[in-house]
Amino acid sequence: MSKSHVPDRHQQEPLWAAMKASYDAWEQAATPLLDAWLRSPMFLRPAGTMLTGITRVRAMQRKVMDHWWASVGLSTRKDQERTLHGIDELQSRLVDLETRLADLEGGR
């Protein structure tokens, strides 16, 4: 059985240098073309329309899922956010009370 030949480091360096030079040349040639295309109304209008459509579909999906979760009797995203906000407020008050208590105990 023979091992597959793995080139040593000295053989790999010219290959990597050639690949990097090729990539740099491609990037230098493609950048102005892609930049012009991405700023073009021919690209921006359909992309904007598609993004608007996707956003609307996601909003409808979220609304339907909230209604479904509520109909099953589980909390919705808004319910969870409201609960989390209340917990955060209670936690802040608790920290304030602990600080006051520590100050009062330290003053004795």
Order of helices and strands: HHH
- Secondary-structure content class: mainly alpha
Helix run count: 3
Could you tell me how far the N terminus lies from the C terminus, measured between alpha carbons in angstroms? 85 Å
Keywords for this entry:
108 residues, mainly alpha, 2 domains, 86% helix
Helices, strands, pairings?
Layout: H1 9-39, H2 41-72, H3 77-106
Question: Could you explain the architecture of this structure?
Answer:
The protein has 108 residues and is an all-alpha fold. It folds into two domains: 62 residues; 34 residues. It is extended, with a radius of gyration of 30 Å.
Short description:
This protein is mostly helical and 108 residues long. It contains three helices and no strands. The chain is extended.
